[in-house]
# Entry
Amino acid sequence: MKEQLALLPQYVTAHLQLTLFALAAGMAFSIPAGIAITRSPRFERPVLAVASVIQTVPSLALLAIMVPALSALGLRSIGFLPALIGLSLYSVLPILRNTVTGLSGLDPALTEAARGVGMTPRQQLWRVELPLAMPVILAGVRTATVWTVGMATLSTPVGAASLGNYIFSGLQTRNLTSVLVGCVGAAALALVLDGLVRALGAALVGRRRSPLFVVLATLGVLYAYSSVTFVQGLRRSGPDRIVVGAKTFTEQYILGRILALQIEKSTGSPVEVVSSLGSTVVFDALRAGEIDAYVEYSGTIWATIMHRDSAPATRAASPTTRAALLSEVSRFLESQHGITVAGPLGFENAYALAMRRGQATGLAVKSISDLARHAPRLAIGGDYEFFDRAEWRAIRDIYGLEFRDQRSMDPSLMYQAVANGEVDVIGAFSSDGRIAALDLTVLQDERGAIPPYDAIILAGPRLVRERRDVLAALSALAGRIDADEMRRMNLAVDQEGAAPDDVAARFVRAESP
Amino acid sequence: MHGNGRPGPPLERGSKCHAWRAGKREGLYYSGVIEARNLTKQYGRVTAVDGLSLTVAEGELVVLLGGSGSGKTTTLKMLNRLIEPTSGRVVIDGQDALSVAPHELRRRVGYVFQRVGLFPHMNVGENVAITLTLMGWDRGRAAARVEELLELVELDPAAMRERRPAELSGGEQQRVGVARALAASPRLMLLDEPFGALDPLTRDRLQQSFLRIRRTLRLTAIFVTHDMVEALLVGDRIGVMHHGRLVQVGTPSQLLQAPADDYVRQLMNTPRRHAALVDSLLARPSTVAQGVPSSVEGRDSESS
# Structure
């Protein structure tokens, strides 16, 4: 808890930067655009329609889309930029719509009077239309403010830090205090910013100097603070700064931190861990040089990056040994993407079908072949991507599995779900400590449908070119974590409530002579 | 005299109104003669104003009288280009109105709106001073002018200057509207049913105030109304409009005595009938004269 709260200023600052810059960009676009389309009404419908369509894209998807879109444009595709653009787009509609409503809802007698007393169109806009529409426009800004603060918590998976880091990691590691800190922090921030905009409106309407000055000064300070810290952040990410990535589950949080500590210990370089990245985002980020290293699984590269249909390949080459697949994956990454495998950590985290030991014994199920006979009466659960993955299709087709029910659920909940009997089988991760802790049994894959999933440290091109010392530090971890060690560490976080960073620190300390 | 207004009385340039005027004299102001030549406004196939020609002499007040949809307001708005004419010309002081930037033109022509149109986010003082602000007057000078104008329209500057339009009664609002229109010392005023929305007593007081101001400043004015009695009361000449055309232009007595057509005759009969009715009521012995409004003088009672 203490070390989590220590991160609070950093996350609040990052959240504030995202929100304030996105709102500034949203207003800078939407208010002039709103003015323009009230001047030429034939654009009103198409422009508002586009803004509405953007709004209908689920916010998480909108942010995720930014990553490949920016990547295609050759821009920095993870971190601050995609989050900023996504949030800015999202803030457009409320501000734009309220600007249009506010301006077109003005009493025509007033706009005519403005012309009648001799105002130019510009004077009419600045002296009459905008002041009178201002309360409606600011109401739109308030809506956008609350939305943007909320949606900024979703920028964690695209690599931008925010209060969402508490929520994402808290949900994955079942740390509800962390989730609560993130939610309460975001809510408080939303209330404060919303209150400021409301106070700005009240001060403008009341036309009293001193409250207006106070509100503007507060906003000015917030913007200045965000800009200064943002520029400092850019400076800090200098050439000797190493960035380690991590996906969005417990094991990755622990391993990301272990990598970071190892690099810091051996080279003295500052290391930043960007965690909770989406699993395709993280590979693209490594390839693009936006992160320098992360832990991947050989089978994932095999199935999702190399697009090997694991079923025929594994059967044809059966038994595809861990070593053979690993060397093929290494060659592929080296030649196609310039990515180096710094070494296998020494354990596998494979997909595995697991069920309650008691039920498996009762049904006399030891292998996936045995399961196939009972499957039509059973329900299977898997994480969100499991049923879309090539591995699942291979298992299903090779063994002819046909379940009564198939349910996607959060990986952190699925072990409890099978233990409680809500589902009968889950697509588990073999390194998860909860398999043993909850007395589950892993079914044998005797026909080799599931490829091996060696945990491997991937190092980006920059490390090979410029930072051999970092590469050496990472290679030193090869073979140092076996399956038992990993399960124990995962269990410490998932069941015993330890912080991933503490577990990682303990590991690195124990490893040191 | 159908359509073609005859020339008015001889012009009196440099008359006493200049002595009153505190505003700057740059020779930019029009002499007060306004002339519409063959003014036409079409909305698609509908002709709102059809070939209207009218000349107003300096210091003259011409009423445009007609029912709703007769084109009188459209005509008025074309004179200061709030509505651009489809064809025809407006000549003010010998200068084509189309050759001047619209906002420049409107600053020199006072306009009083039927719906007043005071800016709700500005106080009374700022509303009155708006044209001066647009023209770049400094604060002190504008404030002095505002005080003068509020006194002219019989409002107490000290009590009124800081108030918001929403806090004023209808009559007070329109007095402020008149003051605003007079701010830049225009010699030409256009008034669009300025007192139409007011109760009869308030309307009467504002009419009297306006007539006094007009005399003091020797304003040339065009005054739109649908109220026959108001037209007879304020107009030096009355132009009757019907279906977008100017049917007849003449002094009130000319119109009463020699209506040009049935429409004008019917129009002139209305006040006659009303007068006859009042006369017959007065003639009855049981009716006392106090039932009839006897005086229209006196300070505002329109304040709320």
Remarks:
- The first helix of chain A runs from residue 2 to 6.
- The interface with chain B takes residues 109-110, 112-120, 123, 127-128, 131-132, 205 of chain A (CB under 8 Å).
